[in-house]
Specification:
The structure is a single chain. It contains six helices and five strands. By secondary structure, the protein is of the alpha+beta class. Helix 1 crosses helix 2 and helix 1 packs across helix 6. The longest helix is centred in the C-terminal third of the chain and has 20 residues.
Protein backbone atom coordinates (compact mmCIF):
# COMPACT_ATOMS: atom_id res chain seq x y z
CA UNK A 1 0.00 0.00 0.00
CA UNK A 2 1.34 3.45 -0.86
CA UNK A 3 -0.01 6.45 0.99
CA UNK A 4 -1.55 9.64 -0.37
CA UNK A 5 -1.41 13.15 1.08
CA UNK A 6 -4.95 12.49 2.37
CA UNK A 7 -3.66 9.56 4.45
CA UNK A 8 -1.01 11.82 5.98
CA UNK A 9 -3.52 14.62 6.64
CA UNK A 10 -5.97 12.23 8.30
CA UNK A 11 -3.24 10.71 10.44
CA UNK A 12 -2.06 14.14 11.60
CA UNK A 13 -5.68 15.10 12.40
CA UNK A 14 -6.05 11.97 14.50
CA UNK A 15 -3.93 8.77 14.29
CA UNK A 16 -7.03 6.68 14.86
CA UNK A 17 -8.34 7.52 11.37
CA UNK A 18 -5.58 5.26 10.09
CA UNK A 19 -6.56 2.47 12.45
CA UNK A 20 -10.30 2.56 11.73
CA UNK A 21 -9.99 2.94 7.98
CA UNK A 22 -6.94 0.83 7.13
CA UNK A 23 -6.68 -1.72 9.92
CA UNK A 24 -10.40 -2.34 10.53
CA UNK A 25 -11.47 -1.42 6.98
CA UNK A 26 -14.25 0.98 7.97
CA UNK A 27 -14.57 3.62 5.19
CA UNK A 28 -15.28 7.32 5.79
CA UNK A 29 -17.38 7.88 2.66
CA UNK A 30 -15.35 10.97 1.78
CA UNK A 31 -16.56 10.74 -1.81
CA UNK A 32 -19.97 12.09 -0.80
CA UNK A 33 -18.53 15.33 0.50
CA UNK A 34 -19.59 18.32 -1.64
CA UNK A 35 -16.31 20.19 -1.30
CA UNK A 36 -14.30 17.16 -2.40
CA UNK A 37 -16.47 16.77 -5.51
CA UNK A 38 -16.41 20.47 -6.30
CA UNK A 39 -12.65 20.64 -5.77
CA UNK A 40 -12.14 17.86 -8.28
CA UNK A 41 -14.32 19.69 -10.82
CA UNK A 42 -12.33 22.90 -10.30
CA UNK A 43 -9.10 20.96 -10.66
CA UNK A 44 -10.23 19.53 -13.98
CA UNK A 45 -11.38 22.93 -15.25
CA UNK A 46 -8.16 24.66 -14.25
CA UNK A 47 -6.12 22.18 -16.21
CA UNK A 48 -7.96 23.29 -19.34
CA UNK A 49 -7.62 27.04 -18.74
CA UNK A 50 -4.60 29.12 -19.54
CA UNK A 51 -3.15 30.53 -16.32
CA UNK A 52 0.22 31.64 -17.69
CA UNK A 53 -0.03 34.96 -15.89
CA UNK A 54 0.20 33.21 -12.50
CA UNK A 55 3.32 31.37 -13.53
CA UNK A 56 4.99 34.54 -14.83
CA UNK A 57 4.34 36.22 -11.46
CA UNK A 58 6.02 33.30 -9.71
CA UNK A 59 9.04 33.24 -11.98
CA UNK A 60 8.32 29.82 -13.42
CA UNK A 61 10.24 28.92 -16.55
CA UNK A 62 8.58 25.57 -17.15
CA UNK A 63 5.50 23.72 -15.93
CA UNK A 64 4.19 20.20 -15.91
CA UNK A 65 0.45 19.88 -15.35
CA UNK A 66 -1.51 17.17 -13.61
CA UNK A 67 1.53 15.13 -12.59
CA UNK A 68 1.00 11.76 -10.92
CA UNK A 69 4.11 11.16 -8.83
CA UNK A 70 5.14 8.33 -6.56
CA UNK A 71 8.05 7.17 -4.44
CA UNK A 72 8.59 4.23 -2.09
CA UNK A 73 6.14 5.63 0.48
CA UNK A 74 3.56 7.97 -1.00
CA UNK A 75 1.82 8.90 -4.24
CA UNK A 76 -0.10 11.93 -5.35
CA UNK A 77 -1.35 13.99 -8.25
CA UNK A 78 0.12 17.49 -8.28
CA UNK A 79 -1.88 20.13 -10.17
CA UNK A 80 1.32 21.73 -11.44
CA UNK A 81 5.03 21.09 -10.96
CA UNK A 82 6.90 24.30 -11.69
CA UNK A 83 10.55 24.81 -12.53
CA UNK A 84 11.55 28.22 -11.19
CA UNK A 85 14.14 30.58 -12.64
CA UNK A 86 16.55 29.81 -9.75
CA UNK A 87 16.66 26.10 -10.70
CA UNK A 88 14.46 24.89 -7.86
CA UNK A 89 11.04 23.32 -8.36
CA UNK A 90 7.71 23.98 -6.65
CA UNK A 91 4.26 22.42 -6.45
CA UNK A 92 1.24 24.57 -7.28
CA UNK A 93 -2.17 23.46 -6.05
CA UNK A 94 -5.61 24.93 -6.83
CA UNK A 95 -8.09 25.13 -3.96
CA UNK A 96 -11.83 25.56 -4.34
CA UNK A 97 -11.81 27.83 -1.32
CA UNK A 98 -11.61 31.44 -0.19
CA UNK A 99 -8.39 32.73 1.31
CA UNK A 100 -9.02 33.65 4.95
CA UNK A 101 -5.64 35.16 5.87
CA UNK A 102 -4.16 31.87 6.99
CA UNK A 103 -2.90 28.64 5.49
CA UNK A 104 -4.80 25.64 6.79
CA UNK A 105 -2.62 22.86 8.11
CA UNK A 106 -4.18 20.42 5.64
CA UNK A 107 -3.06 22.53 2.68
CA UNK A 108 0.42 22.93 4.17
CA UNK A 109 0.71 19.16 4.71
CA UNK A 110 -0.38 18.51 1.13
CA UNK A 111 2.35 20.85 -0.17
CA UNK A 112 4.92 19.10 2.05
CA UNK A 113 3.94 15.74 0.52
CA UNK A 114 4.23 17.17 -2.97
CA UNK A 115 7.65 18.64 -2.13
CA UNK A 116 8.79 15.16 -1.03
CA UNK A 117 7.50 13.63 -4.27
CA UNK A 118 9.09 16.31 -6.45
CA UNK A 119 12.48 15.94 -4.72
CA UNK A 120 12.41 12.17 -5.15
CA UNK A 121 11.19 12.19 -8.75
CA UNK A 122 13.14 15.14 -10.20
CA UNK A 123 16.16 15.33 -7.86
CA UNK A 124 15.66 19.08 -7.42
CA UNK A 125 15.37 21.24 -4.33
CA UNK A 126 11.91 22.43 -3.34
CA UNK A 127 11.97 25.50 -1.14
CA UNK A 128 8.42 26.72 -1.60
CA UNK A 129 5.00 25.81 -2.89
CA UNK A 130 2.01 27.77 -4.14
CA UNK A 131 -1.70 27.72 -3.42
CA UNK A 132 -4.29 29.30 -5.70
CA UNK A 133 -7.58 30.13 -3.96
CA UNK A 134 -10.14 29.96 -6.74
CA UNK A 135 -12.99 31.52 -4.73
CA UNK A 136 -10.82 34.55 -3.92
CA UNK A 137 -10.32 35.56 -7.53
CA UNK A 138 -7.41 33.12 -7.98
CA UNK A 139 -5.42 34.62 -5.12
CA UNK A 140 -1.87 33.24 -5.20
CA UNK A 141 -0.13 32.45 -1.89
CA UNK A 142 3.52 31.41 -1.57
CA UNK A 143 4.31 28.89 1.19
CA UNK A 144 7.88 28.31 2.44
CA UNK A 145 8.89 24.62 2.54
CA UNK A 146 12.14 23.92 4.33
CA UNK A 147 13.77 20.48 4.63
CA UNK A 148 12.21 20.02 8.07
CA UNK A 149 8.77 20.31 6.51
CA UNK A 150 9.36 17.22 4.38
CA UNK A 151 10.78 15.34 7.37
CA UNK A 152 7.45 15.94 9.18
CA UNK A 153 5.47 14.06 6.54
CA UNK A 154 8.11 11.32 6.27
CA UNK A 155 7.75 10.72 10.01
CA UNK A 156 3.94 10.63 9.72
CA UNK A 157 4.17 8.12 6.85
CA UNK A 158 6.45 5.89 8.93
CA UNK A 159 3.92 5.94 11.79
CA UNK A 160 1.03 5.12 9.46
CA UNK A 161 2.90 2.06 8.15
CA UNK A 162 3.59 1.06 11.76
CA UNK A 163 -0.12 1.28 12.72
CA UNK A 164 -1.17 -0.75 9.68
CA UNK A 165 1.67 -3.26 9.89
CA UNK A 166 1.30 -3.99 13.59
CA UNK A 167 -2.51 -3.53 13.83
CA UNK A 168 -1.59 -1.01 16.44
CA UNK A 169 -4.37 1.00 18.13
CA UNK A 170 -2.85 4.49 18.53
CA UNK A 171 -3.76 7.21 20.97
CA UNK A 172 -6.48 9.57 19.81
CA UNK A 173 -5.72 13.20 19.07
CA UNK A 174 -5.19 15.38 22.09
CA UNK A 175 -7.57 17.95 20.56
CA UNK A 176 -10.95 16.69 21.81
CA UNK A 177 -12.90 19.26 19.76
CA UNK A 178 -11.91 17.22 16.68
CA UNK A 179 -13.90 14.29 18.03
CA UNK A 180 -17.25 16.13 17.87
CA UNK A 181 -17.72 15.78 14.09
CA UNK A 182 -15.53 12.73 13.55
CA UNK A 183 -16.87 9.96 11.33
CA UNK A 184 -15.71 7.39 13.88
CA UNK A 185 -16.91 9.13 17.08
CA UNK A 186 -19.49 6.41 17.85
CA UNK A 187 -17.00 3.54 17.74
CA UNK A 188 -13.89 5.22 19.12
CA UNK A 189 -12.98 4.12 22.63
CA UNK A 190 -11.89 7.17 24.61
Amino acid sequence: MSLTPSHIIQYLYCPRFTYFEYVLGIPQFEEKDFKVKKGREVHDNKLEQNKEYLRRRIGAVYKLQDQYLTNNSIRGQVDEVLTLNDGTMAPLDYKFAEYKDRIYETYFTQLKCYAWLIRDNFGKEVEKGYLVYVRSNNKLIEVALDKGAVEDVKKAAKEIYRIIGLNYYPKATKYKARCLNCTYRNICVK
